[in-house]
Amino acid sequence: MDICLLDATELVRLVRRRELSAREVVAAHLARIERVNPVVNAIVTLDGDGALAAAAAADERVVRGVEPGPLHGLPIAFKDTHLTRGMRTTQGSPLLADFVPDEDELLVQRIELGGAIRVGKTNIPEFAAGSHTFNPVFGATHNPYGLDRSAGGSSGGAAAALAAGLQPIADGSDMGGSLRNPASFCNVVGLRTTPGRVPVYPALDLWGSLTVAGPMGRTVADVALLLSVMAGPDPRCPLSLETPGEVFRAPLERDLRGLRVAWAPDLGGRVPVDPDVRAVVDEQAKVFEELGCHVEEACPDLDGADEVFRTLRAQAFEQSLGVFLEASPGALKPSLVWNIEEGRKLTGADLARATTERTRIHLAVARFLERYDVLLAPVSQVAPFPVELEYPVVVDGQPQHTYIDWMRSAYLFSVPATPALSVPAGFTSDGLPVGLQIVGPSRADRAVLEVGAAYEAATGHGRRRPQLPE
Questions:
Q1: What is the pLDDT of residues 204-237, one digit of tens each?
Q2: Which listed residue (131, 150, 154, 228) is catalytic?
């Protein structure tokens, strides 16, 4: 039994039955990190001694009769954007390379209270900007399915760590695809949650940011397990949903016969998709037909979503990172400087127009998803690209002028308040992973997970593990 390749749900079951101890689970993962992480560079801060001590304490609590939490004994390295008390949170920037917070972010608190064991932090792009994980502090994260390829981002370290067996669950965040793109690139599962499903605190904006937090795992059930701990209301977060996280712990089994499925392989002609990716995702509509679904090619009205996303993203970057540009303009990568400066050009009218248009798009998508239960689309428009590139400059013959252009298939769905799941959909002829995006109505996170679980069971694409040197 290779402990490091077991599903998180199975690990929890074995630990609760005392067939494994938390210390054994953590020790096995630390040993694998030592062997494999040097070639993947997914985990960038590690506290092995602290993790083993925490695991031993967790085992002792079980012996004393304390009821274990739903994540009891599972090791996790947190995304290096999330505040971790006593452990550095660098944001992938030299400006914060030695920053050690004195508090845990709410998400970190909940996951550790759920029984998970902190082992370290996972790599990100500089200030989590862009969907390719590299930064001047730790370098690039490499894709376990092709070490010369990108792992995606900004939760690229998290996705690569999952794929490489360095941890069984992972946290992340998603503004324009930062949970979904790396999940697609690394053949794992990532869920962009409905805004408010996972409250974020502390935060500069508690009133409707594009960014949400969410779970990642190697299976849909593992993602649901982690979400059950991350989700639930918090009085400091006015948009947090009242539904308790426990609802995601119930089995995800669902008969998909009769499900109304919209199929949007290029989002109604709005995005170019590389032929190698298109060839993989085109086959997935047939899977849903074989499961008894009614599949129609259709896409909601997403006109204007591109401008809305870019406007609100630029405003958020200026709000959160403008101070760093003023203090140390030469310390930020050019694409990040560009994005902040785009925010500084905005007027009040620009922001008001974006907010109004976002409302219109949300309602248009909501009406569309009254006719269909879910929408299917590619997660990413390209397969994992060479790790030395900052971003793909051409997609299916069309130039990509900025570091976010190639992410449209993901970020257009960041504008309406819809949950979107990235689930493994197969591989290109070169053996590189491709993800399928399953989008559902606002607040239908559980329904999206149920559909994803049925699709996962029918295909088994996520069971194909990478071959790594050890």
A1: 999 888 999 999 999 999 999 999 999 999 999 9
A2: 154
125 CA to centre of own chain: 14
- Ramachandran bin of 139, using left for φ above 0, alpha for ψ from -120 to 50, beta for the remaining angles: left
Query: In this structure, is the dihedral angle defined by the CA atoms of residues 390, 392, 394 and 399, taken in order, positive or negative?
Result: negative
Q: What pLDDT is recorded for position 129?
A: 97
Of 3.30.70.1400, 2.30.30.90, 3.30.565.10, 3.90.1300.10, the CATH number of 3-463 is 3.90.1300.10
Would you call 36 helix, strand, or coil by DSSP? helix
The answer, yes or no, to whether residue 71 has pLDDT greater than 90, is yes
Q: Taking the model in full, what pTM does it have?
A: 0.98
Decide if pLDDT at 162 tops 80: yes
Whole-number percent of the chain with pLDDT over 70: 100
CA atoms within 13 A on the CB side of 392: 23
Q: Which of 173, 178, 409, 422 is catalytic?
A: 178
Catalytic residue flag (residue 131): no
Active-site residue (options: 21, 79, 155, 228): 79
Active site residue 286: no
pLDDT value of position 276 = 97
**Residue 21: active-site member:** no
Instruction: Return the beta strands (E) in 67-218 as ranges.
Output: 75-79, 117-122, 134-135, 139-140, 142-143, 146-150, 169-174, 189-192, 212-217
